[in-house]
Design brief:
The chain has 383 residues and is an alpha+beta fold. It has 2 domains: 216 residues, no CATH class; 151 residues, 2-Layer Sandwich (Heat Shock Protein 90). It has 14 helices and 7 strands. Strands 2-4-5-7-6 form a 5-stranded mixed β-sheet, with helices on one face. The longest helix is centred in the middle third of the chain and has 60 residues.
């Protein structure tokens, strides 16, 4: 008997076998019968239909890799993943379901049919390809939903934190305005104000990270701005926080154009902060900005150890950078930050249709280069 016909004619025995076998697996031992059964029949019907559909060799290869393109709207496997997220299943449990389904179908079929023939072997290959494709669709949808939920949670968290943080900052400013306070109290107030500003920058990066992963990208509002003023402001701000560090600024050419000044100030500040963090204390942070006919080039150079190829590949991806850190650096004092700053810089540059690159060598340290295309100004500086 062909496998497709066997699946359709023996749906109930297959589901019963699957439920019994799946519940014996550690990830699913606490799942209820209803949780195990839903969408399984739909997935099997899709697979049975697929087994009866002619396919070319390239389609077979794509399916075995989980790269076949689903037709129409949501597939049964994708709907299955959505139900599993809602039911609180882990990714390991979803994978275990497909292992159990594969085993149950092939075991029952082997008891009822001769599968040593070329036709039977071909059916087995096609079935495994279809299971691989369904498993890939499920896990892709499962992972996507979890990422969206996590990013939404981070966005809400960051938004909620900014209100009390603003109150702390305002309170510190009130303290600094009271000159009757002793110098020690004023120093504490200044420390609170500076810390709140740093925290606000971290929260801002967190919100931007969450927003871009929700598919909206970094929002920008281009106005006619002078990038030299923005560069000078970010360096002055860096000097305030790091009075012991040296900063050099070289500027040339026309630096007035249509960009989102606030966002580029954020990007420039993140690059300078990164340079400070990863350079030797006695070295200077060198910043240059050049205005050309069709673009502006901004560079930050610092003396630091050359990046490894692995670090270069993951430099602008904080999740991957975090994942490859040694376990003892993921928690505790050894983990200095989550590395959101460079990710936000790249997104801001992308939003301006620009490019960012990095070079690293033992002789010249690390240099980040931002290229921003020049656009026609459409608002005045005093708007």
């Amino acid at each position: 008997m062909k496998l497709a016909a066997f699946i359709l004619e023996n749906m109930e025995p297959i589901l019963n076998e699957w439920e019994e076998f799946a519940s014996s697996l550690a990830p699913l031992e606490d799942a209820t019968k209803i949780e195990l059964r839903d969408h399984a029949a739909a997935v099997l019907k899709v697979i049975a239909k697929d087994l009866e559909t002619p396919q070319a060799e390239h389609q077979s290869i794509a399916k075995s890799k989980g790269q076949a393109t689903p037709l129409g709207g949501n597939t049964a496997a994708q709907l299955h993943a959505e139900e599993r997220v809602a039911a609180g299943f882990s990714g390991e449990q979803v994978m275990a379901e497909y292992r159990a389904l594969r085993s149950s179908v092939l075991r029952l079929w082997a008891h009822n049919a001769e599968i040593a023939t070329p036709s039977g072997i071909q059916d087995m290959i096609r079935f495994n390809e279809a299971i691989d494709q369904a498993q890939t669709e499920s896990m892709a949808r499962y992972s996507k939903m979890l990422r969206e939920a996590q990013n939404l949670f981070l966005a809400i968290l960051g938004h909620d934190v900014r209100t009390p943080l603003g109150a702390v900052s305002m309170g510190a400013q009130v303290l600094l305005m009271d000159q009757t306070l002793p110098s020690k109290a004023l120093k504490v107030g200044l420390r609170i104000l500076n810390s709140s500003k740093r925290m606000d920058a971290i929260v801002r990066d967190l919100l931007d990270f969450s927003t871009t992963h929700l598919g909206e990208g970094i929002p920008i509002d281009p106005r006619t701005v002078d990038l030299l003023e923005i560069c000078q402001h970010t360096i002055d701000e860096a000097r305030t926080f790091h009075p012991d560090r040296q900063f050099e600024l070289k500027a040339e050419g026309n630096l007035v154009g249509a960009w989102d000044g606030q966002r580029l100030g954020q990007a420039f500040s993140n690059l300078i902060s990164n340079a400070i963090q990863h350079s030797t204390p006695e070295s200077a942070i060198k910043v240059s900005i050049s205005g050309m006919d069709n673009q502006v080039v901004y560079e930050v150079q610092n003396d630091a150890e050359a990046f490894s190829p692995t670090k270069l590949r993951t430099l602008f991806d904080p999740v991957r950078r975090f994942a490859i850190r040694p376990a003892n650096e993921r928690v505790g004092a050894r983990m200095q930050n989550l590395g959101l700053g460079l990710y936000v810089v790249k997104e801001i540059v992308n939003a301006h249709d620009g490019q960012i690159s990095v070079t690293s060598s033992k002789e010249h340290g690390v240099t980040f280069t931002v290229r921003l295309p020049r656009q026609a100004p459409h608002r005045r500086l005093d708007d």
